[in-house]
Write a structure and sequence with these properties.
The protein has 360 residues and is an all-alpha fold. The protein has a domain of 208 residues. The protein is built from twelve helices and two strands. Strands 1-2 form a two-stranded antiparallel ribbon. α4 packs antiparallel against α6, α6 runs antiparallel to α7 and α7 crosses α8.
Length: 360
């Protein structure tokens, strides 16, 4: 596994297979009830996504020429901001847990071409909880890093204000540019980790039935042996996301912003965007499957009944017939044959009687 694969790995070939999957899952045949169930899974999965934000330039500029407006506003709104952060963090934890569990629900529905919720919810409960803990850890680290950057910016501003100095506009622009540059770089790293979790770690967990850390370790070895291929995958994945965004924007304009209204409705927007969601989920699964059958969640072509990671049945097991003594014993499947006597079967050592001599 630590050696580069000799297989042909393409970032383009999975596109056509993902489009075929979209047609098979959503339109062959078209079932509105299936759309709403799959849309529910896709909507829950989006709850686990992490948002990235930060302060704006107006915060540092303040409200008046002495720079007092920003400090006074900060002191006045600090208790409300803290309370809102606590409530927001609690909701984020709940949403992250639901989203982690729903990632397996949606992937299961796409792979098996079924509209199911309760069955994959129970089957992948252990994997979903493990994914949630890893995502929670990533979110905590991202929050601490963002809070540190935000605190440094506030400290710099308060220090200048306490000295009676008001930074010039050019200095504010420099501080803001540095802050946003570092913030976007850190956020980009965390967003890449979240994308790899959803695209590649989740299917490995489905195949192995393992925890998120174990699947992440396996993916790390695979990426280390094929770093160039996965780098190209990340770039192409971002290009596909940009193309999908442009297509959605064009459709919104063609519908005179009616599509924007529908997309703004929770859950309904996920149903409307279901073709894009199924395509993105299928694309990453088909890309990973190129690294060998051990990474193919679809299994044999057209086999949608075999659970992930399971060996397909080889047909009925016929009863076994063995000879014990002078009689035959039929052993049913799942039952143990009777022990043979020491030294083997004594009846095997008895020679049959010789025929009488021929007398003509």
């Amino acid at each position: 596994m630590d050696q580069p694969t000799t297989r042909r790995i393409s970032v383009v070939d999975p596109v056509s297979r993902a489009l075929d999957r979209v047609n098979k899952v959503l339109f062959d045949p078209f079932d509105l009830g299936k759309w709403f169930i799959l849309g529910f899974g896709a909507w829950l999965a989006t709850l686990g996504q992490i948002g990235f934000g930060g302060p704006t330039l107006n915060f540092f500029l303040g409200q008046d020429s002495q720079g007092r407006g920003g400090i006074e506003l900060l002191v006045f709104t600090l208790p409300f901001t803290f309370a809102a952060m606590v409530v927001g963090l609690a909701m984020a934890v709940v949403f992250a847990w639901l989203g982690s569990r729903a990632d397996f629900i949606f992937a299961h529905c796409v792979v098996r071409n079924k509209a199911e919720v309760s069955e994959p919810w129970k089957r992948y409960s252990r994997q979903g909880n493990s994914l949630f803990l890893v995502r929670l850890g990533i979110g905590v680290v991202w929050f601490l890093v963002t809070f540190l950057l935000f605190g440094l910016a506030i400290f710099q501003y308060v220090t200048l204000y306490s000295r009676g100095q008001r930074p010039m506009a050019s200095e504010l622009l420099l501080y803001t540019a540095v802050f946003w540059g570092v913030h976007l770089l850190v956020s980009g790293i965390f967003m890449l980790a979240v994308m790899l979790l959803r695209d590649l770690v989740v299917p490995i967990m489905m195949l192995r039935g393992c925890t998120c850390s174990e699947a992440w370790y396996e993916l790390k070895i695979l990426i280390g042996a094929n770093f160039g291929r996965f780098s190209l995958y990340v770039v192409f994945r971002l290009l596909l996301a940009t193309l999908i965004f442009l297509i959605i924007g064009a459709l919104i304009l063609c519908t005179c912003c009616l599509g924007l209204f529908l997309l703004g409705i929770p859950y309904i927007g996920s149903v409307v965007l279901l073709p894009a969601s199924v395509f993105k989920r299928s694309y990453s699964l088909y890309y990973l499957a190129q690294y060998g059958p051990e990474y193919d969640v679809f299994g044999p072509e057209g086999d949608e009944e075999t659970p992930e990671g399971a060996v397909p049945p080889q047909g009925p097991v016929e009863p076994e017939t063995i000879v014990v003594g002078p009689r035959e014993v039929v052993i049913e499947p799942g039952r143990q044959a009777p022990p043979k006597p020491p030294g083997g079967n004594p009846w095997d050592r008895i020679s049959p009687p010789e025929p009488p001599p021929y007398s003509g």
